[in-house]
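Below is one such protein, fold included:
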Amino acid sequence: MAFTKPRVTISFSDEQYNVLKQVSLLSGSPISKIISNLVELSLPMLQNQIKTLQRVQNEQQQHKQRITQIFESSTLNGVATSGKGGRK
């Protein structure tokens, strides 16, 4: 049977692994199932985090564009002003 779900490799600290192993032994569920359930429970929080990060990224891009526009505008105004005043 071919696997159709994406897979990832995860490294754990000794403490993390030991806790997962204990939960696995006591519950009778494989560690992979425990982790999958934890991710499923975390989805709403992760989806909110995605929205927040996208908003921040968009605001940063807008901020960069405004700074670029201000810089270009002040540079053009400065060149025009210095050009007029520099040559009489």
